[in-house]
Prior knowledge:
690 residues
Amino acid sequence: MHKSNADNIKNITLAGHSGSGKTSLAEALLYKAGVIEKMGKVTDGNSVMDYDQEEIKRKVSINTSLATFEYDRKQINLIDTPGLFDFEGETIEGIYAGGTVIITVSAKSGVKEGTKKVYKKAVELNKSTMFAITKIDDENANFYNVLTELKTVFGSKVCPVIVPVIKNNTIDSYINLIEQKCYKYNNDGSAKEVDMPIGDIADKMDYRLDGLITAMTEAVAETDETLMEKFFEGIPFTQKELIDAIHVGMNDGIITPVVCVSSLTLDGIDMLLKEMSLLCPSPSERPIPTAMDSSNQEVNVIYDTQAPMSAIVFKTVADAFVGKMSYIKVKSGVLKSNTEYYNSNQSRTEKIGKLYKMVGKKQIEVSEVSAGDICVAIKIDAITSDTICEPIRDIRFPAIKFPNPCYSKSITTKQGDEAKVSNALQKIVEEDCTISCFKNKDTNQLIISGLGEQHLEVITAKIKNKFGVDITLGNPRVAYKETIRRKVKKEGKYKKQSGGHGQYGHVWIEFEPFLSDTLVFEEKVFGGAVPKNYFPAVEKGIVESMKKGTLAGCEVVNIKATLLDGSYHPVDSSEMAFKTAAAMAFKEAMRDGDATILEPVATLNAIIPESNTGDILGELNKRRGRTLGMNPLDDGMTEIIAEVPEREMSDFALFMRQTTRGLGTFTLKHERYEQLPSNLLNVVIAEVNS
């Protein structure tokens, strides 16, 4: 593989709704470019990009994968991303690493929620975009309906470049509007030029060639004042003007070309490769996010091989055989193998060993990688979003933003496997930034959180396949608390005087509700009824008793205890005796103090499509939620802020996903504890004790 500079590199990310043909398109591109000798299929489990065990089993992309190849004297880094929302973190990594995002849209199903989501993310990350209408060979395909839909949803920047000629409801040939040439494809995917069609392009849609050309030239005219003047004067653009203008328009984010392909028949694949080479901006043309130096000052970085090396880890893979694989995008300078650099996020030296280019799972060793390029390093300590740089220029790039995990399950495993599970989870969390794992101190459960049910199922399978340990997922227990609702004064007397050294402790304690997670302890003892040296023992006796309440055995909170009176024995009294007496008084207080259960309440912050507002508000009401506010946002989205009992939210992520078709997001943050409704008291006690 030849060395490349930033001018002749194309970082292309394939993204789109699940099932829109991303991986199949990647396979067709690799085959047409001569990288592979035979095309594999996702359904057969033999595609280049879907090589993970779970991907083969499920016949769907789970991970972002990379294939580097050369075409038309350009180096193309092709990045294939998952379409399922559960694996959004992988998609974000792929979009971040790319320069252009080719968004696949099925000619059969059209614009879906995933289409909108990846387009929004691409724009947010300042990437150029292109639409590839796939599955054009399907009998239910309708290119022109989808083109119209794209224009309706995404506006005037949508620019047709390659369109089909339809005769008798069948694709006859394809027109490259830039070249204004028509091509007919043979069974092997090769094309020959044929005469341009006369009349309608589409049988039923009444699309005309001049209308499509006008749509393209209108978009092109927006890129330059001189071109705008030519357009109004009716002067046709030259082919070079069209190519250059679309190229600039993509780079500026004001043109999104549309092409059409069939990955099955290979129709249009050669033209897409050509347009990728001609139209998609190179890294040298793309802006780099501003970095921060060691003094927290902004630093401008450019894709320059002569500059000090800087790079970011955009993806981490925990491979059981190879070790940790770090996917790296070089921002400036030249990254060299067997060289020490500085990890500015971890403030430590980072030893880079071997470097590889990837073609799916195939590794091709290289000695160095230049600015704008992508590679993989093996067994380095860096994690996702870490910046690696030369010590002479200590800088740090902004961290990649990932969605917060919102779907949680508890983890159980076989006795003796705890250390293995802990090690596996540590590596999984390093690999997947949308996974979190923690020990709930209140329930003593190990909790794993992700983006959805399928996400955690895949994680469970990965832990078994990669690390050889089984885990079982269950529903997390809610961390309830107990308290009292009224003030009571209770006596505790511990007396054991049956010969020899006895035990004696005697207290009167007033217990009352008080807003505090920990015990508030005071003493108002007069006359030395209880010596001061026994006060700590009394407090300790209450604190230890509060660990387990009398209703459901939950921790007791929100209590103030005031030691009022008592008595002692000059010989038999001890710290243990007073500790025991305090515990006895506490139990009496719980019995007569109108004890109840408190449930955790969380603040919900949800971002949803405006059209789903009624559905979400209705559901929150069913879940005993209280809406605190609603704020309209851009792009037809609405923010809902509410307080909801955590007990009711275990499956809310699934409801949100289904209702908003994956467009809605939310976060939950524990806020406080509130009294459990009386009608749920016995239910919760039974649940906790089961």
